[in-house]
Amino acid sequence: MSKLPTDRQVLRCIYEMYESAYPGNSLGQAQGENDPYLPIEIPDVAKRLDCKPELLFGRLYYYLDAKYRYKQENGALVSLFHLNIQGKRHCVHFPFLASILAGHEEEHKRHSWSLAVSIVALVLSVGAIVAQVITAQ
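^ that's the sequence the OP posted. Answer follows.
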């Protein structure tokens, strides 16, 4: 069984794969520049993440969309993932995805720095103990 990707890895993969496709095609095309929804190919994303497309779909549709969906003041529902919108299948709200990813990246960086500082403190503590033992003899 392959390792399941984290939310951050899923969002980053989609972002990297489709960043060049946003903000959309030139005028007169099906997707305008102000359209935040971008269709994604779940099998392609799943292949890059080395996971099953069905698991990725479930993660996007049942978990991530439910986790991040919100209502605006005017009652409009903003979803991260849509099954079918404006005739496009399996779409992500790309600016929303980018914002969520930025939050995940910030949190990851904060945890990485905390871990690095903790490791340095541990190494210094072990070094101090070793120096204490050596000088005590």
